[in-house]
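Q: Hi! First time doing this. I have a protein sequence and I read that you can turn it into a structure. Is that right? Here it is:
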Amino acid sequence: MHVLAHSTTALLYCRPGMEGDCAAEIVERAGEHGVHGWCRTRSASVEFTVPTADELARVAAGIRFTSLVFPRQWCTLLGPPLALPTTDRAAPLAREIAAHVAVCSEVRIEHADSPDGRPLARLARALHYPVQRALADAGVATGAPAGPTLHVFLLSGSEAMVGLSTAGNASPWVNGIPRLKMPRAAPSRSVLKLEEALGLFLDAAERAAWLRPGRRAVDLGAAPGGWSWLLLERGLTVEAVDNAGLADVVTVHPRLRHWRADGFGFRPSRAVDWLVCDMVERPQRVAALTRDWLVHGHCRHAIVNLKLPMKRRWQSVQEHLATIRSSLPRQGRLSARQLYHDREEITVFASREPLAGR
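A: Yes, that's right. Below is the predicted 3D structure, encoded as structure tokens:
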């Protein structure tokens, strides 16, 4: 978020159906900083309000966006929803923004990722240039590298909310959604989940150090082989574990060994760099399995998916992350996110040691 002297409300984007989980998370995380707020949920978004601007500033300063699980994006709202006359939507937006902001780094016209919000994508694209031109006419400079990001979140064709986020403590993507292209040769769309996770949890230096020839990985519950395929493409040697068969493009690869075995019983003959796991199983079993691999040094780093229950998802996430966290030494890392390419699940990254420069 971006700190504003007057604002008491933040807007958070999330996956449709997980609004309650997003709300529960931000309320609890804010409470850790002594801030007690309340939420209003809309489809694929949450408005979080606190009593004073100072308290919202405390939340913005105290919580790293990358530590949140369910929000895809967050920003500080300039004010209540703004009516947009269909004859000229850009002018009232520019006037509202100019009353609060002199410079910004970029302008994003966004919408909810929901059945109601997706039809607004065409309008969002059409508004981008008129809004930028209207901002220039109103004296608002865009393209300032150090400025905040400006978010115009369309609620409908006639109403929008306007907010600000700070680079480095917000999602870098429009709508909080990374745009990844499905590789033609990949055996399943699940490859996009792992690709998104690697881009989110690791920086460029870490990817270069740990996703290269010579590194070794185990893929539990590998069939049909999407995650194994991506790791092979990055140069790793992979042991794929699944009683089911793998796609031919994976099976014939010289750096792959397929074990027809139960993923919960398999252990490597020697430690590997990566454990990856996308098994359809109860999350407590996968969390306990991940803890076991890390505690006994079977892997250095792990990326696993935890399938979530229908209810109490935020509480469930906390319990399972605590299980995995108990296996990590002081220098370890633990992150989790409900990725865009996830469904009713979260993706967890755990590491026993620093990744970069090794």
